[in-house]
């Protein structure tokens, strides 16, 4: 039974990582929650997979900095917002349904407010 739980967590972790990787390119699929789920699964199932996840560039770009410092640098916040605005902006432009355009716009506003006002900003010299 213990082995079944371990393998189930590994499978869920791998699936979450793949969805997170896809989410780094698609604006409507969130990257960070999937990477955090993968981290949770790997931490409880496999030290090898946990180490592997933490060593990936995807994890380090999206989760590592925040978990290490409990904040994100302002430059990184701006880069994230630019990326989000470009990807979602393209979606808004091409989607023919007004309701979806409005929902995407609300999503952009929410992401901007959360990132700028709720996620702590780390100054450049606060690396330690």
Describe it:
By secondary structure, the protein is mainly α. Helix content is 78%, strand content 3%. The chain has a two-stranded parallel sheet. Helix 1 runs antiparallel to helix 2, helix 2 runs antiparallel to helix 3 and helix 5 packs antiparallel against helix 6. The radius of gyration is 17 Å and the shape is globular. The mean pLDDT is 86.
Concise summary:
78% of the residues lie in helices and 3% in strands. With 128 residues, the chain is mainly α.
Could you outline the blueprint of secondary structure elements for this entry?
Layout: H1 2-23, H2 32-45, H3 47-55, H4 57-69, E1 72-73, H5 74-94, H6 98-118, E2 121-122
Parallel strand pairs: 1-2
Number of helices: 6
What's the helix-strand series? HHHHEHHE
Beta-strand content bin: under 5%
Largest sheet: 2 strands, parallel
């Amino acid at each position: 039974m213990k082995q079944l739980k371990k393998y189930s967590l590994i499978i869920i972790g791998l699936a979450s990582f793949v969805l997170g990787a896809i989410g780094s390119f698609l604006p409507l699929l969130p990257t960070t929650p999937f990477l955090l789920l993968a981290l949770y699964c790997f931490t409880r199932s496999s030290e090898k997979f946990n180490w592997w996840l933490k060593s990936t560039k995807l994890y380090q770009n999206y989760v590592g900095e925040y978990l290490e410092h409990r904040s994100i640098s302002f430059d990184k916040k701006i880069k994230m917002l630019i990326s989000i605005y470009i990807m979602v902006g393209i979606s808004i432009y091409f989607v023919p349904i007004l309701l979806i355009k409005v929902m995407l716009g609300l999503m952009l506003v929410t992401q901007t407010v959360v990132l700028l006002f709720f996620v702590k900003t780390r100054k450049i010299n606060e690396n330690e």
